[in-house]
Write a structure and sequence with these properties.
Distance between the termini: 67 Å
Structural class: alpha/beta
CATH topology of the largest domain: Rossmann fold
Helix content: 40-55%
Oligomer: single chain
Strand content: 15-25%
Shape: elongated
Number of strands: 8
Order of helices and strands: HEEEHEHHEHEHEHEHHHHHHHH
Length: 384
């Protein structure tokens, strides 16, 4: 009986995992390539449930082995709100990767099959994903050695096709490092570039990555966000598992909820209005990733606590007003608006504000009992 129950539980768990993965296998009939190309697409968990939401795209070359580590990290990071939920599109290449990414021996740009593959991604695949799914205007490309070199060619389009480049132990074409150094400062749009190698990487590739890092690191451009990792003990293949989460964490750092370090090192030291920091944070998310997010409850609480600590009472009022608009059925905004009235010498308004939230949903430490207790204390202290 116990064995039957165990088997039943395992089957149920398997179906649950499959139900959440939303992996689509698709054969794309490419006119540019004159052949069918196999795609592997992962949709976000809530894709079918939230029809108003749009999602960035992560394009994965070498999807035969890179798709799972990328898709798994995207799903994990977005689950914890450390990056936006995204659509992951894997291009299956196998042994054809060298033909797909071929370049000319004289000018070192895509040629023959490589030129066709270049056009397939930019002129067929991305437009297909845009018209088939709900996409935001933010695209990341991921490649490894030969395909990591290939994604660089899209930087020479104006504007570049991708907003983010995850280059894992690249095998650069001749002159690629110098061309990137010359090109990147001229790019006017926001660009994220992540480069990784390992101390046990293939010797030539590690040296190439270090040379490229030496060229890219000093580039001073407000539009260029550059990150580099050289993982201790990582081989050409094992570095992938360490680099992908590192890349996601760095590229989407502004998207993450306000951390304890951010609270301590930034908010508690601000001399400018704290409410503006919150507004700017979410405006940056919208501008960079093309998505408009409701401000997280935890971010509201963090900036409110910082406003209290800093005695920025006007910022507290502004933040409370935003919270009331975004979470009207909760006690969040009412609590901090009541705190504003308390601290600015209007106890009667504070009492009424606390009392008015008695039928709303509780949030974090802000309970209805807390609100009513504060109202009762004011009533007792001031004899209302």
């Amino acid at each position: 009986m116990k064995k039957l129950l165990l088997i039943g539980f395992c089957i149920f768990s398997s179906f649950s995992i499959l139900a959440q993965s939303k992996i689509i296998y698709h054969e794309f009939d490419s006119v540019k390539l004159g052949e069918l190309r196999k795609l592997k697409i992962q949709l976000p968990r809530d894709y079918d449930a939230n029809l108003d939401k749009i999602y960035p795209i992560v394009v994965v070359l070498d999807a035969n082995y890179l798709f799972e580590p990328v898709a798994g990290n995207v799903d994990y990071f977005s689950y914890w709100e450390d990056m936006p939920e995204s659509i992951v599109v894997g291009i299956m290449q196998g042994d054809g990767r060298y033909e797909d990414c071929d370049y000319d021996d004289t000018n070192f740009v895509p040629t023959e099959k490589g030129a066709k593959f270049f056009e397939f991604i930019g002129m067929e695949l991305i437009p297909y994903i845009d018209t088939t799914y709900r996409t935001a205007k933010f695209i990341i490309a991921v490649g490894h050695d030969f395909t990591a070199n290939f994604i660089n060619y899209y930087l020479f389009k104006d504007p570049p096709l991708f907003n983010g480049y995850i280059s894992l132990s690249p095998d650069p074409a001749p002159m690629m490092e110098e061309r990137l150094f010359d090109r990147i400062p001229d790019i006017k749009s926001k660009l994220f570039y992540y480069l990784a190698t390992g101390t046990d990487d293939i010797k030539d590739l590690m040296e190439n990555a270090e040379r490229l890092n030496t060229l890219l690191k000093p580039i001073d451009s407000k539009n260029f966000s550059y990150f580099y990792d050289n993982f201790e003990g990582a081989t050409h293949y094992s570095l992938v598992a360490r680099a992908i989460p590192s890349a996601m964490e760095k590229i989407f750092s502004v998207y993450r909820p306000i951390s304890k370090q951010e609270y301590t090192d930034v908010l508690l030291k601000m001399e400018t209005p704290i409410h503006q920091y919150l507004v700017d944070k979410y405006k940056t998310i919208e501008d960079l990733f093309g998505i408009t997010n409701t401000i997280r409850v935890n971010d509201f609480i963090a900036v409110c606590k910082a406003s209290e600590k800093q005695k920025q009472w006007e910022s507290l009022r502004e933040i409370a007003t935003m919270a009331i608009k975004q979470y009207p059925n909760t006690v969040l905004g009412d609590y901090y608006l009541g705190r504003y009235y308390e601290e600015t010498g209007d106890p009667k308004k504070a009492m009424r504000t606390f009392q008015g939230a008695y039928d709303k949903e509780e949030v974090d430490f802000i309970t209805v009992d807390l609100m009513l207790d504060k109202a009762e204390k004011i009533k007792t202290d001031f004899g209302f």
